[in-house]
Amino acid sequence: MPYRLSEMAGTSTVTPEKDQLASAQTTQTYPVQGRMMSGRKTRPRDEVGHYVCPNCGSPSLVRDAETGEVICTNCGFVLSDPSENYAAPVPRRTEEGLLESQSGPPGRFSAFDKNLSTIISRAQASNRNLNADERLQLWRLRRTQLRASAGSSMARNLSRAMSQLRGLSGRLNLPEVVTERAALMYRRALNKGLVRGRPINGMVAASTYAACRLTDVPRSLSEIAKASGMSRKLLAHYYRALVRSLDVTMAIEDPLKRVSKIASRAGADSQTEMLAGKILREAIRLRVNVGKDPDGLAAAALDLAARIRGSMVMQRDLAKAAGVSEVTIRSRMRDLKTASKSLGLPDVA
Fold it and tell me: Does the predicted TM-score (pTM) go above 0.85?
């Protein structure tokens, strides 16, 4: 549908233009930094095309890596949920007077064809409005297109891998940004020949774990291994091969992001959780966390905080919630006692 940009009294509105009825149509508009932009087709943008908050007009938008929500840091307005996508940009006129617009779904790395392929359907090839020669030509083009789309081994591999990736992301409740990052890493591994001789589901799981590490989404190796139906040791082997091949530098995992989840599963109170976070921050300052498992450190900090406060939290429950052994918790607790002494906390057995 063509669009017309009308300038009136220092404001501009984007209204759909169809025949001679443009003036009779009403559109919902948002005030954005002196401009009025339509809310029927797209989300509001500023002059340079960046998305802005429809509530206050601020361009300071961030995406929550864990939930996938887009939030305005100025007023706290939530623009979308994880299942909602931004629409296409507002069409604009070029120097030649033509309209620039985008049609179809946005391109995604998690789609094996990136949503860019054109499919000739059976109904289009059987259109009775065409003559016999045109229908025959469409049937030949359809047959050629179907053969070409599944002809190469790389295309078949990507089709299966992206399907498994979407299923794994759904089971782990991962945001869209993690899925797209994992799909991009899998494509790079496939182009380098790393997938050859290895199972597709193993490399998909390794790419997903690497994407979670890069985007700071708290998903452990054991959780992804359980969701993908493979052993943790095998998944770790594929992950190390992926990181070495793609030359990716991973940051040290932050144990502070694991405290809330473990405390909730073990039934620890909020005061114990806050004290555990204080101990962990001091341990990070003293670099006690280097080379240690973040789940074990978080569980040990909760156990130490519970002992200091006299809270009834069983070490067995913490070990089960963190997916580590009780021996690991006791070993990490000895390392964390240095941080507790630095904070002036009482010594416990």
Answer: no
Query: What is the model's pLDDT at position 95?
Result: 55
Quote the pLDDT of residue 105.
Answer: 58
In tens, the pLDDT along 142-179 reads 888 777 666 677 778 888 888 899 999 999 988 888 89
**Residue-level pLDDT at 302:** 92
> Which residues 6+ apart lie within 8 Å of 90 measured at CB?
3, 14, 37, 38, 41, 42, 45
Alpha-carbon span 130 to 258, nearest angstrom: 63
Using a 10 angstrom Cβ sphere, with 0-12 exposed, 13-18 middle and 19 or more buried, the burial of residue 270 is exposed
Write down the mean pLDDT value for the chain.
76
Tokens 């997938």 belong to 195
* H-helix segments, the chain: 122-125, 132-149, 153-172, 176-191, 200-214, 221-228, 232-246, 256-266, 270-285, 294-309, 315-322, 326-342
Q: What is the mean pLDDT of residues 284-290?
A: 84
Specify the amino acid at residue 273: E
Cα 70 to Cα 73: distance, rounded to the nearest angstrom:
10
* Predicted pLDDT at 30: 38
Residues β-bridged to residue 16? 3
Place of tokens 């006690």: 288
Residue with tokens 């291994």: 225
What pLDDT score does 62 carry?
78
Provide the 10 A C-beta neighbour count for residue 221.
Answer: 20
Cβ atoms of 295 and 324 within 8 Å: the answer is yes
SS3 content of the chain, % helix, strand, coil (to 5): 50, 10, 40
Q: Cα dihedral sign for 223, 227, 233, 235?
A: negative
